[in-house]
Automatic annotation (TrEMBL):
<feature type="transmembrane region" description="Helical">
    <location>
        <begin position="165"/>
        <end position="187"/>
    </location>
</feature>
<feature type="transmembrane region" description="Helical">
    <location>
        <begin position="193"/>
        <end position="223"/>
    </location>
</feature>
<dbReference type="InterPro" id="IPR005828">
    <property type="entry name" value="MFS_sugar_transport-like"/>
</dbReference>
<dbReference type="InterPro" id="IPR050814">
    <property type="entry name" value="Myo-inositol_Transporter"/>
</dbReference>
<dbReference type="GO" id="GO:0016020">
    <property type="term" value="C:membrane"/>
</dbReference>
<feature type="domain" description="Major facilitator superfamily (MFS) profile">
    <location>
        <begin position="1"/>
        <end position="290"/>
    </location>
</feature>
<keyword id="KW-0812">Transmembrane</keyword>
<keyword id="KW-1133">Transmembrane helix</keyword>
<keyword id="KW-0472">Membrane</keyword>
<dbReference type="InterPro" id="IPR020846">
    <property type="entry name" value="MFS_dom"/>
</dbReference>
<comment type="similarity">
    <text>Belongs to the major facilitator superfamily. Phosphate:H(+) symporter (TC 2.A.1.9) family.</text>
</comment>
<feature type="transmembrane region" description="Helical">
    <location>
        <begin position="262"/>
        <end position="286"/>
    </location>
</feature>
<dbReference type="InterPro" id="IPR036259">
    <property type="entry name" value="MFS_trans_sf"/>
</dbReference>
<keyword id="KW-0813">Transport</keyword>
<dbReference type="GO" id="GO:0022857">
    <property type="term" value="F:transmembrane transporter activity"/>
</dbReference>
<protein>
    <submittedName>
        <fullName>Polyol transporter 1</fullName>
    </submittedName>
</protein>
<dbReference type="InterPro" id="IPR003663">
    <property type="entry name" value="Sugar/inositol_transpt"/>
</dbReference>
Length: 312
């Protein structure tokens, strides 16, 4: 059974062999000809490919009218000093981008999803489902809900927009976490005898998983991957993913301790409070990036900051 898990990894490895290099990375290395070929493959029209090529060349510091297949990139245009520029002396727009990119990774797991995914059987047991087979069946429902929500998100993220999907997701999470905390508290105090509390606990669990996976889960990775300027992209994403994994581990290792200390219902009320903070974070720190190129992001966050400064 454990060996079956190697099959998706093998398919991914085979697929990676056919995966082209990023056109932006190629241009940063001076390989304009290779970048142009890939852009022609992934763009809707040749005209769009040419526009993207010129924009990327300009952002890297190469003459946008250069038609050479290979150009020499001076060391001063490489990644020297990126740490200082991003973390110690960032421009106002770059600081805004870093807060948005790292913050969205923080809230993805700080809002409690790992507690539900890893300990759903214990949640259902507290709600009153004591039969092991029924717990497994209810847990399968969590995975199925996650799958359906993620599939729906793939069709919505470009149509609806990142910010709107995030707001919808987080608001839904707040409501379902509040409901889950309430119903679990009632079910736990009654020893699982209040059937409607048991049923609503399960429904709230599924609804929370659905709201999370239709917005915050997938948009976190889309949003953080597209907001950093080319020069700071690798470092910014690396910091964001490190924070993401740290919060994943923190919630995973502390959930049982917290649920014993403040009850399982109280723990989900805590996650609900964190989700409220996440909602304000999205409102104030995450502008819409739908339809924007990487080369436009810094100006987008500059306009956002200026607009907030004006409101103050």
């Amino acid at each position: 059974m454990l060996g079956i898990a190697a099959i998706p990894s093998l398919l991914l490895a085979v697929g990676l062999l056919k995966m082209p290099e990023s056109p932006r990375w190629l241009i940063m290395k001076g390989r304009l000809g290779d970048a142009k070929k890939i852009l022609y493959k992934v763009s809707n029209t040749p005209e769009q490919a040419e526009i993207r090529l010129r924009d990327i060349q300009q952002s890297v510091g190469i003459d946008e009218n250069c038609d050479d297949d290979v150009v020499k990139i001076h060391e001063s245009k490489e990644s020297h000093g990126v740490w200082k520029e991003l973390l110690l002396r960032p421009t106002p727009a770059l600081r805004w981008i870093l807060i948005a990119g790292v913050g969205i990774h923080f809230f993805e797991h700080a809002t409690g999803i790992e507690a539900v995914i890893l300990y759903s059987h214990k949640i259902f047991a507290k709600a009153g489902v004591h039969d092991t087979r029924k717990q497994i069946l209810a847990t399968v429902g969590v995975g199925l809900t996650k799958f359906i929500a993620i599939v729906a998100s793939t069709f919505l993220v470009d149509k609806v927009g990142r910010r709107k999907l995030l707001l919808f997701s987080v608001i839904g999470m707040i409501c379902t976490l509040a409901g889950l905390g309430t119903f679990l508290t009632l079910a736990e105090h009654s020893g699982g005898k209040i059937i409607w509390a048991l049923v609503l606990s399960i429904i709230s669990t599924y609804a929370y998983v659905g709201f999370f996976n239709i917005g915050l889960a997938p948009v976190t990775w889309v949003y953080s991957a597209e907001i950093y300027p080319l020069r700071y992209r690798a470092l910014g994403n690396g910091i964001g993913v490190a924070v993401n994994r740290l919060m994943n581990a923190t919630v995973s290792m502390t959930f049982l301790t917290m649920s014993n200390a403040i009850t399982i219902g109280g723990t989900f009320f805590l996650f609900c409070g964190v989700s409220v903070v996440a909602l304000f974070f999205v409102i104030f720190f995450c502008p819409e990036t739908k339809g924007k190129s990487l080369e436009e992001m810094e100006s987008l966050f500059t306009r956002r900051k200026n607009a907030d400064d004006t409101n103050k």
